[in-house]
């Protein structure tokens, strides 16, 4: 007995320990049940009102303190505000901590009340209560579950949900109370199919909604989000919680904003993420829809947080010359290379077969080399896959591969040089050989047309040219040539991937003349999702459909980083246990296995292994016929559209009716699933039937043995297989499951080990024979574990990219959020000023640099140095920074004061003499651009025009951040593509990317500081040079007039030779951002896209007391953020 087993017997396994912790809570809930049954409906409602009031009272002191501090923070100078904001942060954290304590205290009574409410709805057609304002409002909206009769509200137990009328008939089991407790604690509840995950979610969702902080219920598609909001909504509304679904409303509309203001908000993972990105593109607080991220509960959590976690959500827009692409231009060249390789591999395979038959050992060895060469050339070639399924062939291939991989693949060129290109199927990469480049290049083209030059050697060589102008000209020409060729090589590489690694009806389908990606986990079409890095355009060119124009990224985030923003995160699924380690490492989410309400009666049989796919499919058909004749429904799981259609044709030849569900027929899903549980029904489905479908059985089917699951192939992830098995045996129903496997299956080809193949060879499979044993099943599951470990290793590496980019995005979005709401904007400006001055002093630190420093101060800050050249020489760096910072602060205050002095007389005239109210447009300029600021004239009057100054600061920051961030994302897109060429120089693209992105981000922050302060230091009210009548039209004076921004009214009589006055115009009604020009999309292949990460900005260690920074600074002895492993002072901080 192992130590783990011994300790498990003493202390119990993890599942048992988890349940022991939760059992006392469940006992408390059950103890409250009898008392609640005695209460009237109104008294039951009142229980929740008491809890809601108690929670609100517990946080009132902190909320009042925050309101009081916010009221006085704006009256303080910029450099004195940080302690108050720190106080606000402390109170907000205290609120969250208090809420956790209060919710834990009230959990038993809330859960017991919800359970009793569900029982009353199940037992009565109507539930009568005293009508509240919310009851009347719901009835007025036409909700079908509530009607008003006098002072009473009648709640019905049947309503429309997802297009069908449902009658409420569910009451929470004890195991569902366990699941609800686990979810409330911020963990993942793993529950078997049919155990009522949707009902379980009602408990934590309702409890958390009482905090009034907003609860998000996240689903994988919009049908589920709409259905669940309508299905469970009446239970929440009965007790006064508001409910809505964001997928019912268009983005950035008042209706969607109102949906987020509800206590409970349903939606899909994509839309929650896209709304976050849109909020960070908003130009006005009114454009924002989301609140702070408090609590989310994710349905099918393993799909969202593992499979889709690193898939970037992207909002993109058009770029100049976006249609100027080379995919169609170079498609014939790539087709020529692909066909040449296909002919070559056919010839090589034929020779290999002949030589492997030889009795001579050396000849057989040559044959095995040819076999390996054919595998490196076209691993998905049908005849090759068939030959590898023969006895001993897979084992011979693995032995040959191991030989040529030794010593860092020193002898691999012997294998690959005769090929035109080399494919690494596991890592999905293609690399052209010299022979391939020769075929790729047309006869009339330059032989170097597709070859990347050694740019470093070329530039080094050009350094020998004495003439500076000539040297620079040739350098520019060399860089331009490199950029063009890099784009060509990238285009050709993506086209090769499209031809060799991506098959129609497997990885994608063509629908409505568009390429649509098929989710390998569920088999569903992923609408709006595109492969990244030009791969989607390459597939479009390959299939002859329209190649979509290139776009530029404006905002992006991965689902992983979006969901990590929530204060509390939890999730439900039937298959999270296999990924428990990853969920804990990344999200700190513990997985708790919830016991089933009834024991599982499904029989899971050992895998049935055949030599070839042909034999396997024939056996599958025979098994379907046998089960169908026994009166059992059969669900056949396939891994691709192609296989589902092949099996359907084979059944048709046997005159057996079957229904098919795949990515091409996804619109029939509800109809197919509804019929799948009937006697004798055969359903062939891709993995899309393995998740989220609930197949209900008739009594005669249960008598016959229940639903039979037949898997036609083992998926590389055990979760997908477990999901398919889970469709059978729900709620104690009988059933069975079995998987059919062949040597030609992808899992066996790619990941079955030498030992597994030897074992199968030893068993001596003959034509048509089958192996069925626990040993073989375990061996296949071990191969799946290796795949999962391999995938986790890849994801952990990609996490490095993603985390660095997340720090960068968080920093920029925080600054933008401050600017948009006007919170802490003064502190940000003070920090920017200090950083800029510190950089200037470090840049001009020599005694001879005084004149250059003077010029730079005038250019950046319109400021004269507050010291002489002699003083400059004798001052320390810290003293220079302090003096310049004080002078710059004084100059900015003076500029701000001047704006208020010019604006105040005009504002005073309109408010005191004309009684004006409403919004006005105030023109402020930095000498280059005019900003028409929207300002409330009453607020401007009451604050002595300080509110106008604040709007000016906000406007400059927003415009500058958006301009530079958009440009920075474009540069990162270019960098992501260019660093892949580093692999040709035996360098790690990740390290190069981190270093270069660090420099890019550093330059962007310096540019942000410089541009922002240059504008602020030059800011003044724009006044027409020539005297003219004041233009003014205020909303309060022209309520019925047409909205004409330039409408003028007569100015009041002025003295002769009047002084020029600033214009006052009324503000047009605020318009939301127009997102029609932007595209919201989700990139495919997360493994290829995580490169869009970028290093977070780093500052220098503080030398003296200075303004408190929102962004972390890097100490001199800290690790350098570039990822080099060196200390900051020895790397990018060398000159700091």
Set out the fold topology.
Elements (H helix, E strand, L loop, with lengths): L2 H9 L2 H24 L3 H33 L8 H42 L2 E5 L2 H8 L5 E4 L2 E5 L1 E4 L2 E4 L6 H11 L3 E3 L6 H13 L5 E5 L2 H17 L4 E3 L8 H8 L2 E5 H11 L15 E5 L1 H7 L4 E7 L8 H30 L4 H17 L4 H7 L4 H17 L2 H5 L4 E4 L4 E4 L1 H7 L14 H8 L5 H33 L7 E4 L2 E4 L11 E2 L4 H9 L7 E8 H5 L4 E6 L6 H8 L3 E3 L7 E4 L3 E3 L2 H17 L4 E4 L3 H13 L5 E3 L7 H7 L6 E4 L13 H6 L2 E5 L6 H8 L8 E9 L3 H6 L2 H9 L11 H48 L3 H19 L6 H12 L7 H6 L2 H37 L5 E7 L4 E7 H6 L3 H33 L10 H29 L2 E2 L43 E2 L12 E5 L2 H4 L47
Q: Could you explain how this protein is built, in words?
A:
Strands 8-9-7-10-18-6-19 form a seven-stranded parallel beta sheet, sandwiched between helices. Strands 20, 21, 22, 23, 24, 25 and 26 form a seven-stranded parallel beta sheet that branches. It is built from 38 helices and 31 strands. The longest helix is centred in the last third of the chain and has 48 residues, at about 775-820. With about 1150 residues, the chain is of the alpha/beta class.
Task: Give keywords.
flat; 7-stranded parallel beta sheet; 1136 residues; alpha/beta; single chain
Write a short abstract of this structure.
The protein is an alpha/beta fold and 1136 residues long.
Low-confidence stretches: 1027-1057, 1084-1113
Strand order of the largest sheet: 8-9-7-10-18-6-19
- The N- and C-terminal alpha carbons lie at a distance of 59 Å
Question: Could you give the count of β-strands?
Answer: 31
């Amino acid at each position: 007995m192992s130590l783990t087993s011994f300790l498990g017997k003493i202390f119990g396994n993890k599942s048992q320990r988890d349940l022991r912790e939760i059992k006392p809570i469940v006992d408390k809930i059950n103890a409250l049940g009898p008392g609640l049954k005695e209460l009237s409906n109104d008294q039951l409602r009142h229980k929740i009102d008491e809890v809601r009031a108690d929670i609100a009272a517990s946080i009132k002191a902190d909320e009042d303190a925050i309101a009081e501090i916010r009221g006085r923070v704006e009256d303080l100078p910029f450099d004195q505000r940080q302690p108050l904001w720190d106080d606000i942060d402390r109170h907000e954290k205290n609120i969250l901590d208090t809420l956790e304590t209060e919710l834990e205290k009230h959990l038993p009574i809330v859960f017991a009340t919800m359970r009793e409410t569900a029982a009353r709805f199940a037992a009565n057609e109507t539930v009568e209560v005293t009508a509240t304002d919310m009851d009347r409002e719901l009835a007025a909206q036409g909700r079908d579950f509530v009607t008003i009769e006098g002072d009473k509200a009648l709640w019905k137990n049947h309503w429309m949900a997802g297009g069908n009328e449902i009658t409420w008939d569910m009451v929470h089991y004890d195991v569902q109370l366990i699941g609800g407790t686990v979810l409330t604690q911020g963990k993942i509840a793993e529950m078997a199919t049919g155990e009522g995950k949707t009902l379980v979610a009602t408990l934590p969702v309702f409890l958390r909604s009482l905090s009034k902080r907003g609860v998000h219920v996240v689903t994988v598609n919009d049908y589920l989000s709409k259905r669940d909001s309508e299905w469970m909504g009446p239970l929440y509304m009965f007790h006064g919680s508001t409910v809505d679904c964001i997928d019912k409303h268009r983005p950035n509309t008042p209706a969607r904003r109102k949906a987020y203001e509800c206590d409970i908000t349903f939606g899909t993972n994509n839309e929650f993420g896209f709304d976050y990105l849109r909020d960070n593109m908003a130009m006005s607080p009114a454009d924002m829809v989301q609140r702070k991220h408090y609590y989310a509960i994710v349905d099918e959590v393993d799909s969202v947080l593992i499979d889709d976690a690193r898939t970037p959500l992207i909002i993109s827009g058009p770029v100049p010359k976006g249609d100027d692409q080379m995919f169609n231009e170079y498609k014939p060249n790539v087709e020529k290379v692909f066909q040449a390789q296909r002919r070559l591999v056919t010839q090589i395979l034929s020779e290999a077969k002949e030589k492997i038959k030889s009795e001579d050992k050396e000849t057989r060895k040559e044959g095995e080399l040819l076999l390996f060469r054919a595998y490196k050339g076209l691993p998905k070639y049908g005849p090759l896959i068939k030959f590898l399924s023969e006895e001993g062939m897979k084992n011979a291939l693995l032995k040959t591969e191991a030989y040529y991989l030794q010593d860092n693949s020193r002898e691999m060129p012997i294998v690959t040089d005769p090929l035109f290109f080399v494919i690494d199927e596991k890592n999905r990469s293609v690399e052209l050989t010299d022979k391939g480049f020769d075929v790729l290049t047309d006869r009339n083209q330059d032989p170097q047309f597709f070859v990347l030059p050694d740019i470093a050697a070329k530039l080094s060589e050009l350094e020998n040219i004495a003439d500076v102008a000539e040297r620079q000209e040739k350098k520019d020409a060399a860089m331009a040539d490199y950029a063009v060729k890099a784009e060509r090589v990238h285009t050709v590489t993506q086209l090769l991937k499209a031809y060799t690694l991506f098959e129609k009806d497997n990885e994608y389908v063509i629908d409505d003349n568009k390429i649509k990606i098929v989710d390998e986990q569920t088999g569903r079409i992923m609408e709006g999702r595109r492969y990244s890095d030009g791969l989607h355009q390459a597939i479009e060119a390959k299939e002859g459909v329209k190649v979509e124009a290139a776009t530029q990224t404006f905002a992006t985030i991965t689902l992983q980083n979006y969901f990590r923003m929530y204060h509390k995160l939890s999730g439900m699924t039937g298959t999270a246990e296999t990924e428990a380690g990853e969920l804990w490492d990344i999200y700190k989410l513990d997985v708790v296995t919830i016991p089933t309400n009834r024991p599982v009666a499904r029989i899971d049989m050992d895998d049935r292994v055949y030599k070839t796919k042909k034999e396997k499919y024939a056996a599958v058909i025979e098994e379907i016929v046998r089960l169908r004749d026994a009166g059992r429904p059969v669900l056949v799981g396939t891994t691709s559209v192609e296989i589902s259609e092949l099996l359907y044709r084979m059944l048709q030849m046997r005159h057996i009716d079957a229904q098919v569900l795949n990515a091409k027929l996804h619109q029939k899903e509800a109809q197919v699933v509804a019929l799948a549980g009937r006697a004798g029904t055969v359903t062939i489905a891709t993995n899309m039937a393995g998740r989220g479908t609930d197949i209900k059985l008739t009594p005669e089917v249960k008598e016959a043995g229940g639903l039979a699951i037949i898997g036609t192939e083992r998926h590389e992830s055990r979760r997908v297989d477990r999901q398919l098995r889970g469709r059978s045996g729900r709620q104690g129903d009988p059933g069975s499951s079995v998987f059919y496997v062949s040597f030609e299956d992808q899992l066996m080809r790619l990941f079955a080990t030498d030992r597994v193949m030897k074992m199968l060879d030893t068993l001596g499979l003959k034509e048509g024979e089958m192996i069925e044993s626990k040993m073989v099943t375990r061996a296949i599951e071990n191969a799946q574990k290796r795949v999962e470990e391999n995938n986790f290793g890849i994801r952990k590496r990609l996490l490095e990219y993603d985390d660095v980019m997340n720090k960068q995005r968080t920093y920029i979005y925080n600054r933008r959020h401050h600017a948009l709401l006007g919170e802490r904007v003064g502190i940000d400006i003070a920090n920017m000023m200090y950083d800029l001055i510190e950089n200037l002093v470090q840049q001009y630190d020599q005694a001879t640099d005084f004149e250059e420093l003077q010029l730079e101060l005038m250019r950046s800050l319109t400021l004269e140095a507050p010291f002489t050249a002699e003083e400059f020489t004798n001052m320390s760096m810290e003293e220079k920074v302090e003096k310049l910072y004080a002078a710059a602060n004084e100059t900015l205050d003076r500029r701000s004061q001047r704006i208020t002095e010019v604006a105040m007389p005009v504002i005073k005239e309109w408010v005191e003499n004309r009684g004006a109210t409403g919004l006005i447009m105030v023109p402020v300029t930095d000498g280059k651009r005019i900003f028409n600021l929207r300002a409330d004239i009453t607020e401007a009057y009451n604050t002595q025009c300080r509110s106008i100054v604040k709007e000016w600061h906000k406007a400059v920051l927003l415009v500058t951040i958006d301009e530079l961030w958009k440009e920075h994302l474009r540069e990162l897109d270019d960098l992501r593509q260019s660093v892949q060429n580093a692999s040709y120089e035996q360098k790690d693209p990740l390290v190069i990317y981190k270093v270069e992105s660090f420099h890019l981000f550093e330059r962007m922050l310096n540019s942000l500081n410089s541009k922002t302060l240059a504008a602020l230091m030059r800011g003044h009210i724009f006044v027409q040079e020539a005297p003219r009548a004041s233009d003014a039209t205020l909303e309060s004076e022209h309520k019925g007039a047409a909205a004409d921004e330039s409408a003028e009214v007569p100015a009041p009589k002025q003295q002769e030779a009047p002084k020029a006055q600033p214009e006052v115009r009324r503000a047009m009604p605020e318009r939301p951002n127009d997102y029609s020009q932007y595209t919201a999309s989700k990139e495919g292949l997360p493994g290829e896209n995580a490169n869009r990460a970028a290093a977070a900005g780093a500052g220098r260690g503080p030398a003296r007391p200075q303004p408190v920074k929102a962004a972390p600074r890097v100490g001199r002895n800290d690790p350098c953020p570039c990822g080099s492993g060196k200390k900051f002072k020895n790397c990018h901080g060398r000159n700091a």
